[in-house]
UniProtKB/TrEMBL annotation:
It comes from Rufibacter tibetensis. This is Phosphatidic acid phosphatase type 2/haloperoxidase domain-containing protein. SUPFAM superfamilies: Acid phosphatase/Vanadium-dependent haloperoxidase (SSF48317). InterPro entries: PAP2/HPO, PAP2/HPO_sf. Residues 1-18 form the signal peptide. Keywords: Signal. Residues 181-271 form the Phosphatidic acid phosphatase type 2/haloperoxidase domain. Pfam families: PAP2. The lineage of its organism: Bacteria, Pseudomonadati, Bacteroidota, Cytophagia, Cytophagales.
Length: 279
């Protein structure tokens, strides 16, 4: 009954939303931004370290994929709008120290939750394989934030118009994610700090966080569709980005950059006729 009552409201909202402004940086993200991000000559050797080419995964192929809603000009402009702190910088050092503190305080309950969140991820290429069991799982991942906030009825099957929009948005997200990552080749925290024991080793560079990018891009998109749920969607996105730090696989600056990229993408969408036509 709840699903039937909410569906007309969702569709009405979908056609009448206006973009929200982005919240200001806060918490440890704000504090760390005050620290010098420029190279520190005392640690100059660290600036020779890049993400190892031997660890590249298949994600590098997204560099060949055109964006869906974004134009190539928008992709280029947004992808060049953020820059990682230097490896040798005081900011990176403080970020590594922060991750070491999180590692020391990590609980079994946290590890279970962040592992669960780490396994969530929608991959556009799975759309070509509807016969595979993983096809349906991929659609569930596409609607992870929707079902977490709205309930189990919020699915691709029940909301096909929103599913189509999110699929386009998430294709752009993957293209943006790996464009930025392979432009900057920032090593993972565990490449610079041997004392870090990450909960996973990742097959792409650190900056910016892909998990955080999709978490906030979806949260912003859902928030435009259902403004009343904005706080809940953003709280979930915040949990997802913090989980990457708890796992020891992302610097806080990776996550804050991803949040900024997500909102810039949303802003660009409102200038894009193809996006507006799909509303």
């Amino acid at each position: 009954m709840k699903k039937m009552l909410l569906l007309p409201f969702l569709l009405l909202s979908f056609f009448s939303f206006a973009q929200h402004l982005q919240e200001s940086v806060s918490g440890h993200y704000k504090a760390l931004q005050q620290v010098n991000a420029a190279p520190n000559p005392e640690r100059a050797l660290l600036d020779t370290v890049q993400y190892p080419a031997a660890e590249y995964g298949s994600s590098v192929t997204y560099l060949l994929v055109p964006p869906h809603y974004l134009t190539r000009v928008q992709l280029h402009k947004i992808s060049h709008s953020v820059k990682a702190p230097a490896n040798s910088s005081d900011q990176t050092r403080q970020e590594l120290d922060y991750l070491l503190q999180l590692q020391k305080k990590r609980t079994p309950e946290q590890e279970q939750r962040v592992t669960f969140l780490g396994n969530i991820g929608y991959w556009p290429q799975m759309n070509f394989f509807p016969g595979l069991p993983s096809y349906q799982e991929n659609l569930r991942h596409l609607f992870f934030e929707g079902t977490e906030v709205l309930g189990p009825w919020a699915t691709a099957e029940n909301l096909p118009q929103i599913a189509r929009l999110l699929q386009g948005v998430m294709l752009d997200m993957r293209v943006m994610e790996f464009t930025v990552k392979y432009q900057q080749l920032r090593p993972r925290p565990y490449h610079l700090e041997p004392a870090l024991k990450p909960m996973a080793r990742m097959s792409s560079p650190a900056f910016a966080s892909g998990h955080t990018l999709w978490a906030f891009l979806q949260a912003y998109t859902w928030s435009e569709i259902i403004p009343e749920k904005r706080e809940a969607f953003l709280a979930l996105a915040e949990e997802i980005r913090k989980s990457r730090e708890i796992m020891g696989i992302h610097y806080p600056s990776d996550n804050e950059a991803a949040r900024l990229l997500a909102h810039q993408m949303l802003t660009a969408y409102f200038q894009n006729e193809a996006f507006k036509a799909d509303l």
